[in-house]
């Protein structure tokens, strides 16, 4: 049991049972939880032949840090993909690929929110450096609401080298920076794009910035100078999705 991870929350556990049922070893429901959402979990667990147990909520409170919603699953360790996964994803891409790079985002809440947004916007994968970056854990999965089980998280040893390889494959690297002259909405994002978001507070590292083909900024109309990285990521990704749906800038 010491090698298993505890994943919690309705969305995260349901996504695991739907997409990776073999990873789920045990599901726990809080006593008295018999609502329709719990029934869905019971049906999925039965289909996957996963045992379901009951325990008191206060016992679950001691297991995990966060709002577990009366649902906890014990699963095999998280899967973080290596760089070779990118080759396979690009080969399978249906239309111009869209990749998201998070250059040193360390807050698991931000990583979870970015995974959720990236999946919703149709990104192929989220790329992070192996060092000084948040990785998959129970908090990330809970915030991602199931997206962590669907969209690949790719950890690379050398981010600058990875960006170079993606450029060689015909992708354009678009980085975000507050001092950039080009507004986001004037940038063509309808083609094969790698969107690079910087770390909380610090932004992109110098070497990452140097590998960008374009730098864009989010126009700010209020008194604040910047947005939370997960909010900014959502704005950028959905502008890319809008352009891809309409087929043009407007």
From TrEMBL:
It is an enzyme of class 2 (transferase). One of its GO terms (cellular component) is cytosol. Its main location: cytoplasm. Coiled coil: none annotated. The keyword Transcription regulation does not apply. Residues 6-81 form the RNA 2-O ribose methyltransferase substrate binding domain. Keywords: Cytoplasm, Methyltransferase, rRNA processing, S-adenosyl-L-methionine, Transferase. InterPro entries: 23S_rRNA_MeTrfase_RlmB (IPR024915), Alpha/beta_knot_MTases (IPR029028), Ribosomal_eL30-like_sf (IPR029064), rRNA_MeTrfase_TrmH (IPR004441), SpoU_MeTrfase (IPR001537), SpoU_subst-bd (IPR013123), tRNA_m1G_MTases_N (IPR029026). It comes from the Bacteria. S-adenosyl-L-methionine binds at residues 198, 218, 227. GO terms for molecular function: RNA binding; rRNA (guanosine-2'-O-)-methyltransferase activity. The keyword Cytoplasm applies. It catalyses: guanosine(2251) in 23S rRNA + S-adenosyl-L-methionine = 2'-O-methylguanosine(2251) in 23S rRNA + S-adenosyl-L-homocysteine + H(+). Its EC number is 2.1.1.185. It is found in: Cytoplasm. Belongs to the class IV-like SAM-binding methyltransferase superfamily. RNA methyltransferase TrmH family. RlmB subfamily. Specifically methylates the ribose of guanosine 2251 in 23S rRNA. This is 23S rRNA (guanosine-2'-O-)-methyltransferase RlmB. The gene is rlmB.
């Amino acid at each position: 049991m010491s090698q298993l991870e505890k994943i919690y929350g309705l969305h995260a556990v349901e996504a695991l049972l739907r997409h990776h049922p073999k990873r789920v070893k045990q599901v726990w429901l809080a006593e008295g939880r018999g609502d329709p959402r719990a029934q869905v979990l019971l049906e999925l667990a039965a289909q996957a032949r996963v045992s379901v147990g009951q325990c008191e909520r206060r016992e679950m409170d001691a297991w995990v840090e966060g709002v577990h919603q009366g649902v906890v699953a014990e699963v095999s360790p998280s899967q973080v993909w290596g760089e070779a996964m990118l080759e396979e994803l690009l080969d399978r891409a249906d239309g111009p690929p869209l990749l998201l790079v998070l250059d040193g985002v360390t807050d698991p809440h931000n990583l979870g929110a970015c995974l959720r947004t990236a999946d919703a916007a149709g990104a192929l994968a989220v790329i992070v450096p192996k060092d000084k970056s948040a990785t998959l854990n129970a908090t990330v999965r809970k915030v991602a609401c199931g997206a962590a089980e669907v969209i690949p998280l790719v950890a690379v040893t050398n981010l600058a080298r990875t960006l170079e390889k993606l450029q060689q494959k015909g992708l354009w690297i678009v980085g975000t920076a507050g001092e950039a002259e080009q507004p986001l909405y004037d940038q063509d994002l309808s083609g094969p794009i790698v969107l690079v978001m910087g770390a909380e507070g610090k932004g992109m590292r110098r070497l990452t910035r140097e590998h960008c083909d374009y730098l864009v900024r989010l126009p700010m109309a209020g008194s604040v100078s910047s947005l939370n990285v997960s909010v900014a990521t959502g704005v950028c990704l959905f502008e890319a999705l809008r352009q891809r749906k309409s087929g043009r800038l407007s």
